Amino acid sequence: MTIAHPIATAWLSTGGPPARTTGAQNYDEFADDAEITAIIAANPASALAVEMPHRAPDSLGLSFADALPAAVDRLARAKAEGRYARHDGIVALYRIRAGDSTAYGLWTMVDTDQISTSADEPGLVIRNEDVFLDKVRERVALAQATGHLLSPVLLLQTADGLQAALEEAVAAAGAPAVTDTDQAGRIHEVWPLPAGERQAALLALAGAGELVVADGNHRSLAAQTAGLDRFLAVVTTPASVRIQPYNRLVSELTVPPRELVERLRATPATPGVPPARGTIHLYLDGRLFAATLPRDEAAPDVDNLDHALVERVLFRDLLGLDPGDKRITYVGGDYPTRWLTGEVDAGRAELAVLVAPVTVDDFVAVNLARQKLPRKSTWFTPKARAGLVLAQLSAQD
Known about the structure:
2 domains; 6-stranded antiparallel beta sheet; 11 helices; 21 strands
């Protein structure tokens, strides 16, 4: 029996020009809250105005909780204006195109009770990354207030067969019902697929093997916390994704820059993110340094990944900062190196930490072993876009 199911009541975006579409980057893809406000100001129809209501221009200064009524109103208004169309009992085919790269996925509902967070916890959905609980609470509150899920959890299917089946289904599907272009120029396309033999076959493949949470750790935990039977997901395959660097900015150092460089025994480095695991790059005082952080040979390999060493050695031991400290900003791969170094040069941060990306093979291996990745260590691309397919929760009861 598959753990992937149709969306009982789905609302698909009806598209439109860039300044009118509901499609949006996910709420946690930004290094600066002001970017969210600017996007909503330029496109009030964006699902981002619902997902981050306290960042909307007319709600600035309100807490997330106080801005929730505005989120409910915005979603209701978007439906009333015809920005979403209702579909019952569907799954949705998903294709993302960028140049000569093409990714495929399936929008579906997945059983929440299948989420496993440790080796001794049964379940076919593996989530093994630390989260920030305040973000989880916000996702719970949003789902409860709006009665909808607007952003999917991105799941990697580790069994074979889904990629080829999705490619075949899309080739036979005709023109997409939804087309949306994201901030990087990637084209997102969605096709609703009603009940039938193809839907059943795709659901069987999507839920056939172990599913690894690639993006949406907070959203999956929010589904558990809210007591939802199922959560909205896009199931994809390792062949359709890659991992970009996930870097860090520190707004305020607790030790002088010169002392930090000396304690790390850092040496001058060539520009850019390190090409491979084992070395991190540090940008401070207008200079770039390379450093090798000490490993713990007695620890599992996952605890010696570069992101884990940055968290343990650099942040905790040398700077005395908890990874959740507000002075640390986690910056995903959509932001190039020049953006991070520019933040330091402009005085908005004192340190940029550049970390080589985790490989897809390492990511899958760590998760299948039920080991826990450091928080914010994998920036998957292409990401499933929010606001294209919504799941109405009342219809899932």
